[in-house]
Input
Amino acid sequence: MKRPALLLALAAALPFAPALHAAHPAVSGEMAGVWLPDSKRSDRAPRVPLRPEAAESREKWLAEYGPVDQRIDDTNASCIAEPMPWPARLIAQYPFELLFTTDRVTVFYEVFGSLRRIPIGTPRNTFDSLPSAMGTSSGRWEGDTLVVETHTIRRDGAGKPTGDAPISNARRITERFSMGKDEAGNKQLRNELTIVDPVVLTAPVKFTMRYKWSPDIFVGEYLCQQDIWDQNLQGSPSTVPWRK
Output
């Protein structure tokens, strides 16, 4: 193709270039950046309505493996991050960062160095997806609201040792991220979560988390194993019996 013809072809294609990717709305610029949990304005962990058979299964597990010793039977003490929605509902002051790129939202959590990759607009092929702590997510925009649906979440324990309800393969989590302001007029990120698990729950579980805009906070490196190694080098006694 001659140069003038090539230029004309490229110019003709430019108006259609944005259609190749789902553009993020302007509000994504407000959502992008570092946030801290707003513990005073967020909902606490809600009551979980277990189906009778799920409650019975949990009690059977506790009878067989209990009593629970929180110094040992704690995934965090063993540097294992709890699965979703734990990182989203955590009220401890660990920051996270939202990064918007073409057709994707990436969430960097400081705690446990957890990472979520959320494709936007085009659902990813999940046929070979394996259960993981963050699960498999896909997102879409409904106006200025970012809707994220997550499934294939790793199942851990029987619930009581970590404070979470039992999880089945049918669990689905829907998050609705939107922008707002707190009573002082400060920028606020809201996340309305709905957990559906028909195998375990008698009804959906809903709660809302709120986060504070924190542009001066840096999402740091979180190496849980470093603490264990430092205790080993320093000869410091550990509060976890199996580490002694």
Q: What stands out?
A: The chain has one domain: 22-243. Residues 66 and 127 are 37 Å apart (CA to CA).
